[in-house]
Amino acid sequence: MPLALLALAIGAFGIGTTEFVTSGLLPEVVDEFGVSVPTAGYLSTGYALGVVLGAPLLAVLGARIPRKRMLMGLMGLFVVGNALSAAAPAFGLLLTGRIVASLAHGAFFGIGAVVAADLVAPHKRAGAIAMMFTGLTVANVVGVPVGTLVGQSAGWRVTFYAIAGLGVLAVLGIAALVPAQPRPEHSPVRGELAAFRNPQVLLAMAMTVLGFGGVFTMTTYLTPMATEVTGYAPSSVTWLLVLFGLGMVGGNLVGGRYADRALMPMLFTALGGLAVLLALLPLAAHHKAAAAADILLIGAFGFATVPPLQKRVLDQTAGAPTLASAVNIGAFNLGNALAAWLGGLVISAGLGYTSPPWVGALMAGAALGLALVSAALERRAVRSGRVVAAGPATGRGNAGTSAAAEVAGERVGAAG
């Protein structure tokens, strides 16, 4: 794999660390600023909203800027946000710093996925995307626990300064290792917006919201379920999250590898397995070993959906992929927010701490249904002659999913 992917992965590692580390540092923030725990929770809510809004906004504003320069600018914005958070004299400025940093999140992953895919041969694109996202998954295993430990021992400000330092390292890595990217041409914003008229793009984004969102019905309410139902000590929850993170790392790499071979079958397997594992968790939650194994596998199957879903969007928007790719990153965060809200509803209804995974199972099942619809529409397009398959009907080679296949189909149609 090209060394440029390492620079992108470092940026992803920093972003993943800053996104989740505030959960472990809330007590320190509460003590310093004298705010309530729910108020301190706005640090996570504000970040998520910043991702959803910043992804399309910055992708459009940077549509005519070369992608390498845009990536460096986004990481610069990330550095500024984290430095502002670290130096904030008041809670309001800390929240402002979090939002500034979050604006770079969606656009960085969206544009980074396009750049990563362009660095390799077409049959290795999902693997390249997965390599970049490995930085995000490793952040959950290493960055968040270490950042929490540093913040608890040396102060939470030190953690944010260290994350800003990671951002500087990523800027330098991108400058040195990522090859120059061509400047977009011919009114790119109009072309980028046109991608959303493609039903396959909208279906892929809906799968992102529902499929990956289902994972967060488990993670959002993991602590009360693990301590109140399974019987784990509160200190053990950190290790359960590390276990979940290890599953994410493995699932991301496997999903990237097999999505390059057979994208839709990989997506069917990941979404179907995720739905089953979430449905089983309320039962497994009554046994420590079973719960730990299920949490590990939910992380694996959940993140195995990320490379194929991101590549699916890129394949369907080959001529103008940047905005759609960035919006799909925002869709992940929208799914997180939806999952947390729905999980809270069923708990408030008195169904207990094991009820959110049932909601997650329904969400993942709905995503699987959309994947089947997407595949059926694609097969119909192939039969009607609008798309020429890129591989055998077994699905290997991503039959009908590649940009090359779509272009070939259009040429056949034009010739006819």
TrEMBL record:
Pfam families attached to this UniProt entry: MFS_1
Keywords in alphabetical order: Cell membrane, Membrane, Transmembrane, Transmembrane helix
Main location group: membrane
Alphabetized GO MF terms: transmembrane transporter activity
Listed transmembrane segments: 42-63, 70-93, 99-121, 128-146, 158-180, 201-224, 236-255, 262-283, 289-309, 330-352, 358-377
Localisation: Cell membrane
GO cellular component, one term: plasma membrane
Ranges where the Major facilitator superfamily (MFS) profile domain occurs: 4-383
Superkingdom to which the source organism belongs: Bacteria
Keyword presence, DNA repair: no
Membrane topology (UniProt): Multi-pass membrane protein
InterPro entries xrefs: MFS, MFS_dom, MFS_Efflux_Transporters, MFS_trans_sf
Keyword Cell membrane attached: yes
This protein's name: MFS transporter
Organism name: Streptomyces mashuensis
